[in-house]
UniProtKB/TrEMBL annotation:
Residues 15-210 form the Calcineurin-like phosphoesterase domain. InterPro entries: Calcineurin-like_PHP, CNP_phosphodiesterase-III, GpdQ/CpdA-like, Metallo-depent_PP-like. Gene3D superfamilies: 3.60.21.10. GO terms for molecular function: cyclic-nucleotide phosphodiesterase activity; metal ion binding. This is 3',5'-cyclic-nucleotide phosphodiesterase. The keyword Hydrolase applies. It holds the Pfam family Metallophos. Belongs to the cyclic nucleotide phosphodiesterase class-III family. Keywords: Hydrolase, Iron, Metal-binding.
Length: 296
């Protein structure tokens, strides 16, 4: 494993974190008559592929389909799977409050349909990824049942070689919009009691339709923005306003000692300076401050 200028080893894992795709049936392609959720995700995936980032996995933290219908899941699969194959990335799905457990299993994973919580575990080398279903069928708030908590406690009882990332739709963070408080994750203390002191290095979530970060039980929380439409936090009186803009995903770099979450927004913009690093440049050769200023 090579090192950068600061002597830190390169990331062991590069992961792309998407959330809230809210796909709809191709027969009526505009979400709420406005946002083209399929086109937005396709654009974000194309930009990721063109960047050469080569993520090991594409993680989707819920609200995959807007109303949990089969046609929407099929459309999502048509967009994601070819891009994932070209990038050599594994695709990981998590449930959201707009999703349907049985239909998701049948259309996205080819599993036998079931209404049981969609909880599962996978490994990216020595990194463990735990997917926790925080949804309550028929409602939009989040909960984790005692049975799920017992399962999670059992999974985390033995640490993974490179630690664990926990994926869930409802983030265990305060909500900044008063009208959205009713759809928060409930009984968060019970989840905190299970997670505290474990090898969980990060909690990755969605649901809010804007990017934010916090800590929970001493663990960093990273919320990815939505790829369909986003919430405008400038709305007066802590109200809500969805907007067809500012869609994004997060690039997750997992290092030995830290995990970085970087927001990558949609769109192309005017270039303000550009530089490249030749493959044969020695990593120990660092430009002086004067050279950096002159290069600008």
């Amino acid at each position: 494993m090579t090192s950068n200028h600061a002597g830190r080893p390169q990331a062991r894992h590069v992961i792309a974190h998407f959330s809230d795709t809210h796909f709809v049936s191709p027969e009526d392609p505009l979400l709420y008559g406005v946002a083209d959720s399929r086109a937005h995700l396709a654009e974000l995936l194309a930009g990721l592929e063109d960047s050469g980032a080569a993520p090991e996995a594409l993680l989707f933290t819920g609200d995959l389909a807007d109303v949990g219908d089969a046609e929407a899941y099929r459309s999502l699969r048509e967009v994601v799977e070819p891009a994932a194959r070209r990038m050599g990335a594994r695709v990981v799905w998590a449930m959201g409050n707009h999703d349907d457990r049985a239909t998701l299993r049948r259309e996205l994973t080819d599993e036998t349909p079931s209404d049981a919580p969609y909880d599962h575990v996978l490994h990216l080398g020595g990194l463990r990824v735990v997917v926790l279903d925080s949804t309550v069928p028929g409602f939009h708030h989040g909960e984790v049942t005692p049975v799920q908590l017992a399962w999670l406690e059992d999974v985390l009882a033995e640490p993974a070689p490179e630690g664990t990332l926990l994926l869930m739709h409802h983030p265990p963070v305060p909500c900044l919009q008063d009208l959205a408080v009713a759809v928060e994750l409930r009984d968060q203390q019970r989840l905190a009691d299970v997670l505290r002191g474990t090898d969980v290095r990060g909690i990755l979530a969605g649901h809010l339709h804007y990017s934010t970060s916090a800590t929970f039980a001493g663990i960093p929380v990273s919320v990815a923005s939505a790829t369909c439409y986003t919430q405008d936090l400038r709305t007066p009186d802590r109200g809500t306003r969805g907007r067809d803009g500012a869609q994004a995903y997060n690039l997750v770099h997992v290092y030995d000692e830290t995990v970085m979450h970087s927001v990558v927004p949609i769109g192309e913009h005017v270039t303000v300076g550009r530089s490249t690093v030749a493959a044969d440049v020695r990593p120990t050769v660092v430009p002086t401050q004067r050279e950096l200023v002159r290069a600008r």
